[in-house]
Amino acid sequence: MKISAVEPFILHLPLTSDSISDSTHSITHWGVVGTKITTTDGLVGYGFTGTHAHLPSDRLITACIRDCYAPLLMGEDASDHQRLWTKLARHPALQWVGRAGITHLALAAVDVALWDLSAKKAGVPLWSLLGGARTEKLEAYNTDIGWLSFSTKALIAGSARAVEQDGFTRIKIKVGHDDPNIDIERLEAVRKRVGGAVRIAIDANGKWDLPTCQRFCARARDLDIYWFEEPMWYDDVASHAALARNTSIPVALGEQLYTVDAFRSFISAGAVHYVQPDVTRLGGVTEYIQVADLALANRLPVVPHAGEMSQVHVHLSYWHPASAILEYIPWIKDHFHEPANVESGIFRRPQQPGASTTPLPQAFERYGKSLG
Ligand code: 0YR
Ligand code: MG
Which numbered atom of ligand 1 lies nearest the CA of 307? Predict the structure, then answer.
């Protein structure tokens, strides 16, 4: 299975709502930025990272793939994931400028494409290639009802619809107003509407500082918050450790962490309870497995962040024993051969060979962008 072509691509796929915001980002499209990799035996693999569809920075990722990684990959055996991962991630000139950010997002796309190829070659879905399913039912939680840009009225209506019509028992709600009392009021209204049995997680996307979080958590004590995600600045181990010690609400984080080393720092400091790796920001499936194993060894649940809208994480979560539940956002499902799909709050287990990363031809025609 020798690599004969590496062809990066950029797709800007429109969201299912016009635009959404969390505490730190406002977006109208999801960027699917990655690469097609072809082998001499005629197989085609796809892998991608997830972005906010900002073309100049998306082009830095595809330039890294095209100009730095492709020459290192041509002619290589695509099934040697670990060796190729090391070849790209530890290349002396590239690790000098990388190890996180652009080069790591590009690495994620390449690594996922290689795993997609291996599963396609074996003729099985990725979860099967990795060792088979750990569960018959992977539970989903719905993030798409809880954006910070939604009015309280829309937030309540969406939460009720998710629970009563769509069968979700778990939802996630964005917080992070300048005045945290507004978030408390919104959460109280949702809790009142959906009842005590629904699991409500919250996500501040790194907005607040430690005193704000401590005051907020004290006020939220009776709301039975399932986890508090990214309460503070992404890299701040000490403040998350302090918050984890001082509140009964579990801390979740990881969507902005690039390496197994970063996860080790948070885990060993007792700064995280729900571990949230993302194959699109870690160096793909290869490094995700290291993080999930680390979480397992520390008896912590893994709840991936859906940077690829759960196309790949559904495989990993059906397989890896540390997995718990999985995030669901339906933004890109119209554009793939086998999109992540949820029925009555349960992810359908993928059936097609590969990692479910193959876009439909019309996605390239309609939403493809020039690499510049
Ligand atoms: C919107 N999920 C997240 C979206 C989402 C972000 O910027 O990307 O809210 O990735 O935090 O848990
Ligand atoms: Mg988040």
Answer: 10
